[in-house]
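Field log, afternoon session.

UNIT: design team B
ACTIVITY: writing a sequence onto a fixed backbone
BACKBONE:
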């Protein structure tokens, strides 16, 4: 896993924290005892999660099952449940490991520069494992890596004057945008051929009377350009969102400045 909990001191947490966290997450934080080693002495939550990620990367999330992961590891399915409570528990641990820790280098500059770096790095991390956005979460990710990403993003708001809820909401908007963009690009694909196919199909079903706005877009050629959906289009959306957050920051600073 990306965060090595064996070499660092476990954080001080309430005694019942292990019961409040899925087992694999508690193990990754170092606040749960590792199972007593049995015949398969090399088995660990790290190996289980890494194997599951390799399977999802190679064959897609649909190929993932507890029995398939166990078979890849050469153990019984029941052996996995000493380390993970359920498949949902495994998925949470996979998300955390697949994201990895945020970049080691602390971002500098304005809040906007820092959030740009955060969003771009976040986007790149998810693009490496696009199955992340296909997972329906019943619980928020609480692994050490995803928590570190959240901390890094919130640090960018230190000098903005925004309240805590505004900071959290702004970061959530960026997170939703990143995940939504990856979901769209991984589903539709990217490239000029996809653009042409979409434009040709659209031209067959729209007309200027019923769809004047779409017809104008088609006539301009904008739907057939070679913009990179995962590059230029991502940047357009990111800068637009940051413009909106910037308006919020400017308004807050005006209200807080001495008159």
């Amino acid at each position: 896993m990306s965060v090595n909990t064996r070499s660092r001191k476990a954080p001080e947490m309430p005694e019942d924290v292990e019961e409040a966290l899925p087992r694999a997450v508690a193990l990754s934080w170092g606040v749960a005892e590792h199972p007593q080693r049995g015949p398969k002495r090399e088995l660990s939550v790290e190996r289980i999660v890494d194997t599951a990620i390799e399977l999802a990367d190679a064959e897609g999330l649909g190929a993932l099952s507890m029995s398939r992961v166990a078979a890849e590891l050469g153990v019984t399915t029941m052996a996995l449940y000493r380390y993970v409570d359920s498949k949902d528990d495994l998925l949470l641990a996979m998300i955390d490991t697949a994201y990895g820790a945020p970049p080691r280098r602390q971002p500098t500059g304005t809040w906007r520069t820092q959030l740009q770096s955060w969003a771009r790095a976040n986007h790149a991390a998810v693009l490496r494992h696009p199955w992340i956005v296909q997972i329906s979460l019943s619980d928020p990710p609480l692994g050490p890596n995803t928590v570190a990403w959240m901390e890094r993003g919130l640090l960018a708001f230190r000098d903005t004057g925004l309240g805590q809820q505004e900071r959290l909401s702004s970061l959530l908007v960026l997170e939703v945008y990143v995940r939504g963009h990856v979901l769209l690009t991984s589903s539709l694909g990217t490239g000029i051929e996809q653009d042409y196919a979409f434009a040709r199909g659209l031209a067959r079903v729209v007309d200027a009377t019923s769809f004047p706005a779409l017809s104008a877009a088609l006539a301009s050629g904008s739907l057939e350009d070679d913009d990179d959906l995962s590059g230029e289009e991502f940047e357009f959306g990111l800068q637009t969102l940051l413009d909106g957050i910037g308006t919020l920051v400017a308004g807050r600073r005006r209200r807080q400045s001495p008159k």
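LOG NOTE: Residues 192-224 form one domain.
NEXT ACTIVITY: expression trials, pending approval
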